[in-house]
Structures are given as structure tokens and as C-alpha cells.
Records
---
Amino acid sequence: MAKERMLQFVTVNREMPEKRPAELRSQDFHEIYRDFAARKAVEQSSRCSQCGVPYCQAHCPLHNNIPDWLRMTALGRLDEAYAISQATNTFPEICGRICPQDRLCEGNCVIEQSGHGTVTIGSVEKYITDTAWENGWVKPTKPEVERTESIGIIGAGPGGLSAADMLRRKGFQVTVYDRYDRAGGLLTYGIPGFKLEKPVVMRRVEQLEASGVHFVMNCKVGEDISFDAIRGQHDAVIIATGVYKMRAVGGPGVGQTGIVQALDYLTASNRKSFGDEVEAFDNGDLNATGKRVVVIGGGDTAMDCVRTAIRQGAVSVKCLYRRDKANMPGSQRETQNAEEEGVEFVWLSAPKGFTGNGAVEGVVVQKMRLGAPDASGRQSPEVIEGADYVEPADLVITALGFEPEELPTLWGVPDLAVTRWGTIKADFRTHQTALPGVFAVGDIVRGASLVVWAIRDGREAADSVEAYLAQPASVAAE
Ligand code: FAD
Ligand code: SF4
Ligand code: SF4
């Protein structure tokens, strides 16, 4: 059998697809990795040792059947690899691009643990589905039976879209509502093109439309239509609205112009890459060109901001983070990419305030050291007294994380129970909320999380909606 094609990790070294040189890639918003050549994908897949208990699969939130699609790729049977891959993942080519694989599948590959370098699972996953698109294997859904029940989904991010896909496959009538003009949620307006090019997202949206998913865009639930009206129009509702309230930075001088929030900044940049007119970008407010930029934060959003600023032609880009590199929440791979592209990291530094006379001129930086571990085991940053200094800045971008909006209040549904963090309370398996027939998925339940978890939730919620609608009406209403 095919085993002899596999287990090549002893003789074949780990190779990622070629990364474009930093000086070239930092001039544009295209993805930074070139495509795997077919021969390379085969070779890299053949490194897998076909583990009987595949830890890669156990640590993939979708439990993708990784060893099987690696084996099919190694054998050149890409159509079968694609069939296996898409059976568990709604957007494999997107996960292949942007999952933090070092923390999920690849970080748990036994070959990695034995010091040979992980199988490049994400790159192969991307390669398989990109090839499937090129060859026309990715087809719109044609349900075997059309069902009359209608499902309303609020939010067109990965959580909402993966639920929509699965529900259409089951034959339900699906309407997705979103306040934005384009679907995709953070895939479209948050994550920059150098990680995920926009046509990759848009072709998925078009495919869903071709599958019969009805999109109602520019429709903000709670303003343009009430939540109750949506509930009244559909047999079940899925809430997939993500988390968008940004944690604010404090300190003297904080209200000045030139201090902006990460998502406003990234959304403006992403809109420009669609060719949209964006006044706040064109007038310079959300544009880093020619500026000394300071980004505050150490997560993935901060990494996306610093690298966007480099591409916009900032004079300098510095990233302030209150812990050290080893304790950063953001992916080490993205941090390395940022360093290669010219970003300077200022570790153990926190903002105390801002200088300037109405327009920001600098960040007052407090130097920190790592003290005793807190309850979570992480070392807490402590201020080093007398070590403050001013970091000059024309544009300060704050990326301190996201919190949920207060949906029960905004939507006038006090019975929609939330946790003490403001996220919607939903059963972790069925995704059912406190309201009958209402389900919730993705970041609005988990807090700021990952695309792959939103996809998992959306797929599971589709099954739960089907089960809910199969119940007698008297039971479902309880
Ligand atoms: P979202 O993607 O946020 O989508 C929610 C949708 O709901 C939006 O389209 C919004 O317009 C809509 N909506 C909200 N309120 C309403 C309303 N009242 N009415 C109508 N529509 C509404 N994850 C990764 O795995 N890898 C990464 O590299 C990565 N990078 C990231 C970079 C940035 C800058 C950010 C902010 C996040 C990143 N994430 C990444 C996290 C990931 O994007 C999210 O976890 C994921 O998108 C959550 O999916 P979701 O469907 O729950 O919500
Ligand atoms: Fe790895 Fe993400 Fe793909 Fe799962 S979905 S195999 S975690 S890249
Ligand atoms: Fe292959 Fe690594 Fe997964 Fe084992 S853990 S099946 S070697 S990819």
C-alpha cells in the first residue's frame, strides 16, 4: 500500500512554500507565501508518518482527517484529498492560510516533537483546496430535497457563513443578515490581504449565493430591523455577530487626534484594497504614509496593524508590548514576519499617556519588568519607577483586544442571557441560547477567538438547528 510513499521525514526536510523577500512583500498587500509547486506538496505530504493516533487531528478544532488527505496528496490523488478535506472543513483554503498552526495541528505533530520539523499541514491544506478551485471541483450546493423551514443568521463572518453552508446542504432556506456591505466579517474587513487575499473570501461568498443562500447586506440588526422581527420571520435564528467593542487605552492626552483604534485602521485599509473611497483614509486620519507609527498591543491584531503600516509607507513602525517576546499572545510566526519587514518591537513597555497639543506627538512609555507569576501562572508586568521616556509618534494605533457589545440591551431582548463577560450564554455542544430556537456561535460566544473555532461552531449549530426543528412544536417552544 501507500505506506512506502510516506514516512519520508527522515530524508526529506520540512519546507514551507517560498516566502517572498521582505523588501518585496512589504511593498504590497499580496499574500507573502508563494504557492507550493505540485512536486513540493507531494514531497512534503510524504513526510507524514501516518500516526495511528494522530495528535495533529486531535488538536485541530475541526478534527480534520489530516493523515488521510496527506496520504492522498502524496499519492497525487488530489481530488480524493479534496473530498476528505472539505468533508470536515467549510473553508479549508482559508484555515490553511490563517490558522495559527504552530499552536494547533502542526504544533502537535509527532515529527515536530521528535525534532524533525512538523509536516506543513496548513500549506498542504491550502494547496489541496486552491487546486480544487482551479480545477472546478468546488461546486455550489444542490440540496437533494428543498425544505420549507427558514433560518435567519445574523452575521456573515466565518461562524455565520459555515452555518449557512451546512444548513443549505440540508435543504433549509437560509437568509444571512449583515450590517456591512460585503460578507466575510473579519475575513473581509479585519484580516489584511497579506495573510488572506480578498478574492479568496469573495469567491466563497459568491459560491454560497450560487447555492441559494440569501444575503441581506447593509442591515444592522437592532437598528434597521429588530431582533424580534427576525425571530418572527424565521423558524430558527443563529447569532454570529462577533465581538467589536475595542478595549480603550487610558492616560493623559488620550483624546487627541492621531490616536486610533486598530479595527478602524484595518477596516479602512481593507476597504481601500477593494478600491472603495474611504474619507478617513484619504484625509490621512487612518493612513500611516509618511508617519512615525506606534502600535500598542502584542496580539495578532497588533501584528496586522504594524505590518499594514509598513506597507502603507510609514517612516518607522514600533510595537509597544508590556511583556517580553516569550510572553506575547500573538503568533511567533507573525512576529518574525513583522521583524523581517522592518517593525521594531519595544518589549516590556506600556503607555502611560500621550504628548501633543490636540494632535498626538508621542507616547509616554513606562518601562516594565516581569514580576511574580499571577493566578494564571503568567508573570505580571511591574512598572520600573523613574524609567519613563517619550516615544515620538504621529499615529498611535491601539490594539488592546475586543469585548462583546451589549446585545440584550441593544436589541431589547433582556431574556437573551449573557455571561459575566458579556458574551452570549450558549450550550457548548448545541449552541442553543436561553431563547427557544435561537442559537449563537463564534466570537460572540467565545470572546475574541479564531476563525477555525467559529467554523466549528457554525457547523455544529447547523446540526442543532436541524434537530431542534425535528422536534414537535410543543417541545421546541420550551
Ligand atoms: P466575525 O468574523 O466578527 O463576523 C461577525 C459579523 O457580524 C460581521 O460581518 C459583522 O458586520 C456582523 N454583525 C455584527 N453585529 C451585527 C448586527 N447588529 N447586525 C448585523 N450584522 C452584525 N483568527 C484566525 O484564526 N487567524 C488569524 O490570523 C486571525 N487574525 C485576526 C486579525 C484581526 C485584525 C482580528 C480582529 C481577528 C483575527 N482573527 C484571526 C480572529 C477571527 O477573525 C475571529 O475569531 C473570527 O472572524 C470570528 O468569526 P465570527 O463569525 O464569530 O465573527
Ligand atoms: Fe490545522 Fe487549522 Fe487546518 Fe485544522 S483547520 S488542520 S488547525 S490549519
Ligand atoms: Fe502525520 Fe504529524 Fe499528523 Fe502524525 S501527527 S499523522 S506525522 S501530520
---
Amino acid sequence: MVIGVLGAGTMGAGIAQLAAQNGHKVILVDKQEVQLKKAKDQLALILLKLIDKHKITSEKANEIQSAITYSTELSAFSSCGIIIEAILEQLDVKHSAFEQLEKVVSKECILASNTSSLSIASIGGALQKADRVLGIHFFNPAPLMPLVEVIPAVQTNVSFLEQAVSLMKSWDKTVVVCKDTPGFIVNRVARPFYGEALRIYEEGIADFATIDWAMTEIGGFKMGPFTLMDYIGNDVNYAVTTSIFEAFYYDPRFKPSFTQKRHSEAGFFGRKSGRGYFDYSEGAIIPTPVKDYELGQQIVDRILAMLINEAYDAVFMQVATAEAVDLAMTKGVNYPKGLIQWSKEIGTKEILSRLEKLFADYGEDRYRPNPLLRKEVLH
Ligand code: NAI
């Protein structure tokens, strides 16, 4: 099958590489010639590194390179069996792209979006034949991250969904199918990792370095929340949080934080701007955490209880199965354990009592325990 990729930025270039590595002919289209050139040059560098590391032969590298055709014209997509769109995260821009795409492809061509935050149904709204619209959400970098969330919209025909799932499996991806709801699985369930960490900071319980130390040293996470937000970019992370908060009709569980807003407003985006929660300039003093294990454990217990509550909510609201939620968090964002499994190891009763205490102490709806977690405890 010929694979079309629209948008040759970070994600599109990665998806094109992945498809070519899996033996497909790929058409990569971007409206900017300069982006296509950048994608091509970057791929050449990546392939050279892979040859150096003996991961691929130079013949395979040549095959991958020659499998990709670069174009600025949508008409280049005419022979594709699927198009994966990875352009600007803006509904009007995606609508106009999907309208144009439909004019150049066959009726059986799947039209997929790599959107992180927009509804697939709303993207499909631009199509005449919307039963072939889907979300195929990759994680950055697409060739390396094992997880793919596949999202059928209310309009999607099941046969297109099955085709997309088997295509992703043939690329050795771990596939989780989930409902077309804000943030899908990963970007929804992971919110408290950032939000509760920020809240703990705002209450003056601990500083950034201490919270990060607790979550890595005691919690076993690969990266602390503040280091991770500095990697993602505070502007990007704040925008995702805000869009999820709005999409959930302002549910206080997803309320954004002033601290992140202020950091973003100040241009403290993180690594890319040289300063975020931490200072990345040369010679900057690295803050030392307060290595108080009792405090650290309290921080981990609180953030973990909130993450687990969110994982139960995703299952409760039928976004995905418990197995899919656990797979998504371990394969998409490298959590040390699946959250549902983790809750059983700690004891669901213990998690419920942590949440009930938070709810009683603060009286905020944000801390309400999920009904499915409560049910689990009663069983
Ligand atoms: P990017 O800004 O790196 O690349 C976007 C590309 O699309 C640019 O090359 C731009 O020239 C091109 N473009 C914009 N409008 C176009 C149009 N109408 N026609 C053709 N080309 C057009 O963006 P990035 O980060 O690759 O994100 C793309 C999509 O993937 C977004 O929907 C984003 O939410 C989603 N996504 C991003 C992830 C990330 O970590 N960056 C992870 C998963 C999803």
C-alpha cells in the first residue's frame, strides 16, 4: 500500500521514515519546500547514524531513502491507500486540508489525523465520505516510540478501523483503540503528573527539584514532572492542559496552573528557551532537592493516587479497556508500571483512602474518587 503523509514537520517526517522502513512507498507532502528539504536532510543523517550503529545496512538505507517521494502538491497522493495528516494543530487548517485531500484520493482511501487534542469527529466533519476518517496518534519520535492510539470517530466504518489497526501492527506498533474523547488515553490520564505536581509546589509543600527527586527516586518514573515539562515546553504543555480543561467543560480535575501560565508568559518554556522551571544556561547552579524520604513518599503517594484515579476514570467512561490504559501509559510515556496494575499492588483500598482524605481536606471536586475505583474496593 502506498502511504501518504501530509506535513513534513517533527511528526510527519518521523511517520514517513517509519512507513518507508516497513517497506512502503511513501509520498510526503508539505506546503513548504523548505520543510521537505529539512525532512530529507534529517532522514539522511538518521540513516547514517543507524548504519554506524550497525542497525541497518547501507542498501537498506538507500531503499528507505528512495521509497520516499517529496512533493508540495496534494495531487501526488492520488495512488495512496491511506493518508496520515500531521500538519498544524488547528481545526480550520485541518478542515481545509481534509476537504482538499478528499478531492484527490479514491473513495476507499483512509484519511487519518495525528492530532493530539482535536476531536476526530470534528475533523471528519469536513469530509463528504466521513466513514474513512480516523485518528492515528503517534508519539514523538514516531519511529522509536512503540505506542499508537487508534481512534475511530462516531462516523468511522469498522472495516477502515480494522485496516488501520492491522497496518499499525504490521509496523510493530503496540496499538490501543480508544474513544474519541479529549486527550484520548495518554494525554488525559497523564494530566495529574503535571497538574498535581504543580499544585504541590503552589501549596509550598516542596520545590521543583524535590518533587522531581521524589517522583524519580521513590516513584520510579524516568523523569520528574518539572524536568519533563521543561522538555515538552511549558507553552505546549500549558496549551494542551487548557484545551483538555475546556474540552471537559471545565472539570476542576483538569484545571491549569498559574505557575505554568506565568512561566509560559515569561518565556520560560524550558530547554528550548534555555530556562523553564530549571535554568539550562552554561554554568547555571543545579538546585539540590531536599532528600527527605517521608516528604518524598507523601508527594509520590498523592500524585500517584491522582494518576490512578484518572486511569480508572478512563476505564469507567469506556475510553479504553483497563489493559489498553496500562499499555498506553507504559508504552506511550514510559511509566514504570501500568496504573491499574499499580493500584492493585498498592491496594485499591489504600488509593481510595488517599483520595478520600484529599477530598475531605480540600473539599474540592478535583479530588473526588472515581466510582469504578470505589466499586473495585467493595468487591
Ligand atoms: P510541526 O510544526 O513540526 O510540523 C507541521 C508541518 O505541517 C510543517 O512542516 C508545516 O509546513 C506543515 N503544514 C502546515 N499546514 C499545512 C498545510 N495546510 N498543508 C501542508 N502542510 C502544512 O508540527 P508537529 O509537531 O509535527 O505536529 C503535527 C501534528 O502532530 C499536530 O496535529 C500535533 O498536534 C500532532 N502531534 C505532535 C506531537 C509532537 O510531539 N510534536 C506528538 C503527537 C501528535
---
Amino acid sequence: MATDSIDLQEIYQFAIQLAKDAGRLILEGSSKRTQSAATTQDPDTKKNRVDLVTETDQAVEAFIKRSIADKYPSFKFIGEESFAGGERVDLTDEPTFIVDPIDGTTNFVHAIDFVCCSIGFTFKQEPVIGVIYNPFLDKLYSALQGHGAYLNQTTRLPLTHPNPPPLPSLGDAVIGVEWGSDRSKAVIEKKGRTYMKLAADGKDVEGGVMAHSLRSIGSAALNYSMVAAGQLDLYWEIGCWSWDVCAGTIIAHEAGGKVYGKGGKPWHPQDLMGHHFFVVRAIADTPGGETGEQAQDRIAKEFFQVAEEWD
Ligand code: IPD
Ligand code: CA
Ligand code: CA
Ligand code: CA
């Protein structure tokens, strides 16, 4: 197909409208849930008891997939619920939508407002469009490569644009972390030790950095959005998938954030298909001569001296 002739502006506007339409379905699903809870919306379990999925996850993905196939029949599609249904698609140079119909399903089930639809789009393997829409809070985060990132299409991100604050050290950060759905002893021990070092004072715990705080908001895509906005200073997770982070990657990047590969290594497009994710918000250049990017790398280095990783 003529991949060079795709119209990214048109696809961007399409993705924004699609996310808003998906948001309406999510809201409808949530009201149905409160009206007739158990029978229609009882979450089935996928991998284990905490890996939840509802009828709404599946219905929203089916709607998005159908809408994309109608408008762009030759484009590839990667989506969480299609993957769970056995559909495996590799990341190639072809135009590809990478979609999580509901990111934050546990929040959705528990009626917590941090829920979104995440629509990413890659071309030549790079995320170039991202749209993340939280219909409960009516917040839409979006970005098109080279055109900046926005909240509700008008407010440039980060919210402090063009003057992101400095970040002197990891101890000054609010850090996004998650518990994820892998609750094996090995993983929870590593996470637990890492969180303890991030939270505790170095006088009490060896290596403790006593960061301002840790936040676990329950949606990878919204963690990226909050890093893009400059509300979270950084976000770390192992165990996410491409649909959790594709849209967030371009939104954070366009907001001046720096996205890293495994263990803080330089980002490579194929990292999107892995499970190690780390992103630091935009940081100002300092009068002392450190650039914002050098500051981001310094924070990343501090972080990976503390974090325990696994494959
Ligand atoms: C999950 C959320 C959660 C993260 C998990 C994801 P889901 O996605 O983003 O915050 O910790 O790794 O799987 O299941 O709600 O789409
Ligand atoms: Ca899920
Ligand atoms: Ca997800
Ligand atoms: Ca999901």
C-alpha cells in the first residue's frame, strides 16, 4: 500500500473523534453497571483474579476496531481485547493503530474516575499520534508528532509550558508506580523493596531517597498523561503492553518528556513491544548550565540505582 501518502492530520482528527465516541460508550457502560450490577457487568477474569475485563471493555474495542476498519481498511490494528482473543500482530512499518479501549478497568469496576480510552498510532514503527480520553473527568490528552501535546485540544502541555520547573533530585519527585496484575512473590518483593527505598529516609533504609511521594492511579495511559502535564515527575512500570503506553509515549514526548527503554537505556521503537517503561517529565535548563535533557538523564540514573528490575 501507499504508506507514504497517509494524511497524519486527518488521522489525528479521526482518532480524537473516535476517543470521544468511545468515551460516550464507556460512560453508558458505567451507568448500566450501577443499574444492574452483577449480571451484566460482573468482570470476567482473564489471567488471574485481579486482571479484570468487563463487557464494556470488549464492546468499546469492537466499536473502535470497526470504525478504523471502515475508514482505513488497510491499516493494522493491535488492541488489548483482540490480543486476549488470540489476535497477535507485530509492530511493522505499516500504519498501525494500537488501542486500549479502557485503561484502568479496575478503576472502572470500582467506580473510581481514573479511566480512559487510549488510542495510539504508529507509522514506520514510531508512535506519531496519541489520544487519551478520560470521559469521567472530560479530559482529552493528545499529540501529533512535531506539533506539541495538548489538554482538551487547547491547553499546551506541560501545564507550565513553556517554563517547566526544575527537578533538583529524585527526592523532590512525585513518582507514578503501579501494582499491576502480576502478584507473584518475586515481583511483589522487588516492587515492594523499590517502593520502600523511594519512600523511606536514607537514615533508616539503605539507599532511601524519601521522594515527595508515590502515586498509584491505576492507569498506565493516565500516568503518561500526568507526566506530560507535569503533575507526576516520573512514571515507572514493568509489565505493561504496547496498548497501555503507545499513545502516552508520543503525548509525553511532545510535552518535552523523555521516554526511556529498559533500565533507563535510550528508547528504541521496538521497546514499545516490550514490557519495561519509564518516562520523566520536561525539566527546565538550569542557569548552572545543565540542560533539561541532562537533568532528565540524571534523574533516570538516580532512579535506576534504586529500582530493582526483572525480565
Ligand atoms: C492496566 C492499567 C494499570 C497497569 C497495568 C495495566 P487495564 O491496564 O494500566 O495501571 O498497572 O499494567 O495492565 O487492564 O486497566 O487496561
Ligand atoms: Ca486489562
Ligand atoms: Ca491497559
Ligand atoms: Ca484495558
---
Amino acid sequence: MNLPVVVLISGRGSNLQAIIDQRDHGDLPVDIRAVISSRADTEGLERARRAGLENVVVDREAFPTRAQFEQDLVQRIDSYGPELVVLAGFMLILGPDFVRHYSGRLINIHPSLLPRFRGLNTHERALKAGVRYHGASVHFVTPDVDGGPIIIQAPVTVRPNDTPQTLASRVLEEEHRILPQAIRWFAQGRLSMDNGQVLLDGHSCAHQGTGDVESQAMTTDRSPDGMAS
Ligand code: GRF
């Protein structure tokens, strides 16, 4: 049986597209029950429509408080019966009640090698910090924003002439690879969160989140230079 998922987006939706494409190629056993956007008129909603997916907008601005917004969001999501909720470029911070409701079945893609560069503008900040390696992470979501246990990371080598845009585009390619990978593991019943730890095939990923590239390379199927190894 395909894994029922709901995907939350806020904008362009290229990660959503990667999920759709891999599903269409038969590489990702998911049933995308719905795409929910926190904004109207997004490219991501258009992608959902083109793929024939149920798509809705839940606009934060339409609710007086975050609690009311999140209650509505939970009701919507739960009405589709997902076993996994995927934050694929969802740009709002979700509160502890929401996060706890989906504990162990809520994952997020973040454009940095966590724990470095939580939050926004990660590519600019990575360049400013002069790091050799930047990248992307998929993690389980916990009330600690961008601090949940890491499932998979992909390093990208920073080049001397990189701009935030050139770096972002190479990181995005990796996002499109590792987000579907994490979903695939979950769909195959291989991935879970137990006691705040990631379990893959029953084993704890003890090397995760150390922020050093040697460990991060172990979580990917590529070397830190981005070459297939
Ligand atoms: C991605 O870089 C994601 O990591 C970040 O926002 C961007 C969304 O891109 N949170 P898209 O909407 O999937 O194209």
C-alpha cells in the first residue's frame, strides 16, 4: 500500500515537484492525499493542480491567532488521513501543540547542514561565515525549531565565486534528492523517531547532527565533494 502523505508548502514547490516526479517514475510509493499552501497563488499550488492533486490554501492571515490557524490546519490535514506530513518549503513556524500532534510523522527539509544555520537566509549566512561545505538536511520536526533529529544530510562544496543564488541552486538539487529519500525510507517502514532519536532499520543514527562533514558524508551516498562515491 502506498503511504498516505500530506505536503505543506508556501511558495515555488520545487521540492513538491521532486516528490511528484519520483512518485510518477514509480520510485516513491506515496499517495499524495493533498497539498496545503500557506499562501494563495503560489507556483507550488499550480504544480499540484497540474498533477491533479487535491490542493487547498490555509492562509495564516485569515485567523486572529496562531492557535486558531493551527487548529484549522490540523483539522484539514487529519481529514486526509496522512501517515506522514511533509514540510516542503513551508515557511511558517509551527507551535508545540501542532508539532506534538504529529510527533514522529512530521518531517522538514532545511537548506543547511544542521545544526549550522537554523532559520532563514542560510546561503548568505554560509557564505559570510566562509564555510567550505554547505548543504541540506531532512529532519523530524520537534518543538525546537530546525533542531529536530536529523534523518539525512547532503553536503555541497562552496566554490570561491559562489553567490547565494548559485549556492542555493546546487543545494536545491540535493534537497530534491534527499527529501524523497527520507520519504521513501518512511514509506518502506524503515524510518522512525524513537525517544528523540532517528532509527533507520532499527539502528540509531548516532553520528547525526554533529555538524562536521566527515559524519555528514556518512549520512549521504556521496562524498563531501558531491561526487558519487
Ligand atoms: C527550499 O530551499 C527549502 O529548503 C526551504 O525553502 C525552499 C523551498 O523551495 N525551506 P521549494 O518551494 O520547494 O521550491
